[in-house]
Amino acid sequence: MTEEDAVRAAVLDHVEGWFDGDPARMERILHPSYSALEEFTARDMIEATAEGKGRDEDADDRQISIEISHLSGDTARATCLSHRYVEVLQLVRTPAGWKILNGTWRSRASLTPFAPTESGEPPSCESTQPSTSGRRPGHAERRGRRRR
Q1: Which of 7, 43, 85, 134 could hold 106 in an S-S bridge, CB 3.0 to 4.6 Å?
Q2: Which structural domain range is residue 73 located in?
Q3: What is the pTM of this model?
Q4: How far apart are CA 10 and CA 97, in angstroms?
């Protein structure tokens, strides 16, 4: 298996584990220091997976695609698109294999196409601030646990 294949497999474990409601798979792939949006820990994600939060959002066609934008040494960055989310994940290689160290995500429903500006150019990136409005369900009650 190539390193790229191993990174793709790690990302698939994450996204499929979420939608399958498989906490063992989620725990296996998340680094113990995992955080997302500086609010959610590995334990939060594993618990939400066990509660079936991802199963509630599942679809027959998950439309999963993975793009690896960085892979060098012991670090990788991947973007995963599914029917529900756009996720950017940072991974690290450990003795146990590739693990997801952190990530951000948005609901695909919250993404809208950009209208061109008066000059006909797309808007600058400055106007597209990250949002936590696309948070995975079940995490709102955990917001006070970690610093923002």
Answers
A1: 134
A2: 3-111+128-139
A3: 0.71
A4: 9
Domain count within the chain: 1
Q: Tell me the average pLDDT of the chain.
A: 80
Euclidean distance between CA atoms 120 and 130, whole angstroms: 24
CB 17 within 8 A of CB 25: yes
b/e per residue 81-91 (b: at least 16 CB within 10 A): bbebbbbbbbb
pLDDT tens string 42-93: 999 899 999 999 988 888 888 899 999 999 999 999 999 998 899 999 999 9
Helices and strands, counts by H and E, the chain:
3, 6
Q: Are 72 and 78 in contact (CB under 8 A)?
A: no
